[in-house]
Amino acid sequence: MSNFDFSSEEIFIKKFEKLALKIEQLTDEISKMKAKLDKNYKVNRTFGLKTVRNSQPLNFARDVMGIGSPTKRYLLSLRAITEEWKGRKNDILITIRQQEKETQMDLKALGIRIPISDIKNIRVLAKQILSLLYISCELRGLAINEILREILTEINEEGNKMVQEIKQKMVF
User: Fold this and answer.
1) Would you kindly state where each structural domain of the chain is located, as residue ranges?
2) Structure confidence at residue 6 as a pLDDT band (50, 70, 90)
């Protein structure tokens, strides 16, 4: 081999090593960009809108408005869902929906499914909500007993309608 062939081979190997290093760096940058895009997608994607569309509002449960922004509003609602998920169906769906203020179109939603048969969790949830009511009344100086009596009377009067509505909207 001539001296010229040896040095050109050495130059070729050095160039190849530099090219391989550049390819490795580009691959690393691309994977970082992909990870960043995946993270942004996870943050910006819409949660639960399909589930909300597959559920039905409950007439006896009114939506509760949260604190909104100039362009958006937030609603907490109880809904009935018959769609099967993880081997379960006929759940109560507690959702928080983000809506555009002007069009009232749902933008995002997050839902929690609670089976009707899960009395323990429903009891815990009811206790926590009543605790919030108690705290609110104490801080505002209102009589909690009167409010609880009104709520229980209303539930007793409308109880059969509530049960019938659930039976109609869900398939048992």
Assistant:
1) 1-45, 49-169
2) low
